[in-house]
Amino acid sequence: MFVTTLAGALPLLAMPRAVRALATKSRTLDFEHTHTGERLSIKYFHDGAYVPEALTKVDYFLRDFRTGDIHAIDPNLLDLLDQLTELTRTNKPFQVISAFRSPATNDMLRQRTKGVAANSLHMQGRAIDIRLADVPLATLRSAAILAGRGGVGYYPASDFVHVDTGRVRTW
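The structure corresponding to this sequence follows.
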């Protein structure tokens, strides 16, 4: 048992101290949904692991608000938001404009709005459209680009930034 535990700990011990600290640090996110008015403050990562009950609550909160459909949200997307919290030093919740979208909602938006992708990462729980009340939109975009963890779309006319866990790209 000791040998198995030690063998499992060796990769963690080989990491630099700062990286180990990030791997075990508790992570909490605060959200405010612009369409439903709902709020959520949740610790989704604790003691070196994602908290399953918290992820279930996040999945519900970030559901397709038009249809009520729920989909698993990529924990890497939550980690990106946590990183954005640190990079921007925000004290406010993420204002959520859109997160998971059902195929029906995505198709409807594609018919109404230019630039909605047919295979949007929103439909996979890997994208979110956000803003922060205490951070200029351009600063949020710059922080997301600096994070280098996926796609970043800038929509100043609509007052949001899109972030996702797809390939690194900007528009």
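The mean pLDDT is 90.
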